[in-house]
Amino acid sequence: MLSLEKKSRMGLRPLAAALTALTLAAGFTAAHAADDGLPKIPNKKPLKVGFAQTESNNPWRLAETKSFKEIAAKCGWQMVMTDANSSAAKQVSDIQSMIAQHVDLLVFPPREEKPLVPVVMQAKKAGIPVILVDRNIDQSMAKAGKDYITFIGSDFIDQGHRAADWLVKATNGKATIIELEGSTGASAANDRKKGFDEVIAKNPGMKIVASQSGDFARDKGRQVMETLLQAHPDVTAVYAHNDEMALGAIAAIKAAGKQPGKDIVLVTIDGTKGGLEAIKAGELGASVQSSPFFGPLACDVAQKYAKGETIPPWVKVSDRFYDKSNVDASMQYGY
pLDDT-based confidence at 35, cuts 50/70/90? Predict the structure, then answer.
């Protein structure tokens, strides 16, 4: 597997520094500025760059948006930023508005895999290059390296595998599990579920008795967990697709008179400050990091693409893993 140069955080606060490595993922055609049909990035400064955020209701999204704000001046970007307020339809509308404004580059996390495909194709037709970050679109409908430059993000299936592997070991292969899923239709939710469920299916002592969306939100996760606990009072483990839902689940577990971390073991994905603090308190078992610091990575990829360098279809982000063995030394990485 080839690799792109590992980048520093280019002036971001120390806790954001050196969290990711870029690697070449095989499977699709790499993007190159000379490819026929793939728009080029204009040779000018500042570049007008559209960033269409999905929502701003949790620490992960806030950290992601901040990373773009912090890198804009250093990268020579004039940012046009929107917030879809958890609506795929609004995100589509936001991006269509950016296309109408003739931005030079679009960078955004697709809230859902399928609804955002048409707007990616609209941008291509309008001659505006696109970089997708943190979530991808349906590859059967549009392909990286052909219809947009690349996807920068984690391996969500691997994140699910790692969470499940830890849970199997932590419970000695015996658990009754509730799964709190992320936003319906999001690539992160689909793949984190797929990865986790694949491992659990290979362990006969592990059983998922309920799986429901908490929409990546703390309060929704709490509400869903309260309902599922009533239906499945014998649950011994929870897998949440992100820290916010896990923290909501912890509140629901306490309200039910049970002890998180003892009566019910929890594992999650994100690596937020709140998640790390919950691990330190013994209430959360482990969290697979999913870095939100995409601003510097997107800047690096855009500059290389503009120079004519070949860009892999997937710029893969390497993620840390946190549990009680390393949480004290890892608090600096929370956000």
Answer: low
